[in-house]
Amino acid sequence: MQRCRCRRRRRRQERGEAPCAARNSLAKRRGSVRPTRTPFFDDLADLGVAAIDTLQPDAVSLDAERIKRGWGGRLAFHGGVGTGGIIANGTTAEAQAEAERVIAAYMPGGGYAFSPAHALQDDTPTGNVLAIYDAGREAGRYRSAA
Questions:
Q1: CB 99 within 8 Å of CB 135
Q2: Which residues contact 50 (CB under 8 A, 6 or more apart)?
Q3: Fewer beta carbons below 10 Å: N end or C end of the chain?
């Protein structure tokens, strides 16, 4: 077993506590860990947590449709629009389509607040930033039943 270089985490490992999160994250990025459920969502809902902020779509197992289907009745969600990938490198049309896809996945039944997962980087094309917020303004609005 590889040892963690962080002293605090190494002490925790030696005491038999939680494994090093940094090493686990690296393993997940490399694809060597395949979680069977989204970590902690069931536990958080059982503890009374009402909302998850911020959803990072590039993280392992955070597929928008699966998250909404699995926990939409128990948790509200905030975020979900990636700040890399299509938003940072795609065309304006691709960025808008991605935002609309995320909205369509999370909005049905309520409990979704549209936003990027993190702060948009300064090199994100301005047209893409405007496109995702236009999508949010058009498709991301709950209509009253009255």
A1: yes
A2: 75, 76
A3: C
